[in-house]
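Note to self: the last two entries modelled the partners one at a time, which told us nothing about the interface. This time every component goes in together.
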Amino acid sequence: MSAITGLTDLTLGSNTTTINLTNFSSSYKDLIISLTWRNSGNSSAIRVRFNDSVASYDFATIVTNHTPTTTGFNADESSTRAFGVQTGPTDLWQTGILKIYDYANPNRHKFMLTRHSDANGDVALVGTRWQVTSPITKVTIFDVLGQTMQAGARLRVWGRI
Amino acid sequence: MRLELIETVTVGATPLAEVSFNVSGVSSDYVDLYLYISARTNQTISYFWESLQLGFNNYGGTWRGITQARNNGSPYGAVDSSGLGYSAWAGMYASSNASANTFGISTIYIPDWRASHEKPVMLDSAAPQVNYGAQQMGGSRWLSSAAITSIQIRPGGSHSFVQHSLISLYGVSSASGGVTVS
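The predicted structure of the combined assembly is written out below.
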């Protein structure tokens, strides 16, 4: 048995503002999500919410964006920062990986680690704590700046036992 | 995801200037590729580390936008979006100036490598030493819509990999049906 099982592999057929992931088994320890995409505008900031909750996200960041590496921390946000803030041209293909740890465990807060590179002005490492013990049953990926992910974006999801 | 080994190269007693993987015949079942590298070079000019160069299709096409958050003694961040030419930086590895028996390590992620658009690449690497080390997280884009048919890895400056260096190529299998996307 493979320790990591593929759950979906989707290429977007049309421009999309929001991606919702639901109906995944609670039997995995972690969810691993890979997204390769480009945006409709020249700036974007991909965010994530769990279970449609709009509270209690803390995140810490290490980012390089045209300046020396910076670090930051945000508390009690309405969503968490999935990736860095992309400031490149509209045709900029970029990639990121999100790892959501122990997402079905009802006895602990939820943690996510992400890596992102837009290869134009930003690489980022982001750690998230969602101050909620409920199992994650829905993951929403969206652009807080209102951009759309263009057709051709590719989404992959895996579960790790 | 199943991560399956496609090919691995272990460097023997004779230094090796370049590792090249022919991927033109690799199964389309693999949606992504990973390079796992553990390497040391025979660079002796300066520094305990050396960057590698990554090329596709025998260094065809052009690359843009290495962005790196790097630490090799002092925090350092930089971006070069002006164009990189025929290859991308591919992490930091131990050189002959490094402590004996030390190697640099990295993973390089090449998602959607058969896509008909430019290809983003993401890497994490480290070259630990006795009292310090060099780390790098970065990304580049290969500005070509062509299919990737081969992958090249080599030390910069015409140096070579030394014995016990290990460069492996893995494929990530596709899958469906385990989650609803809306």
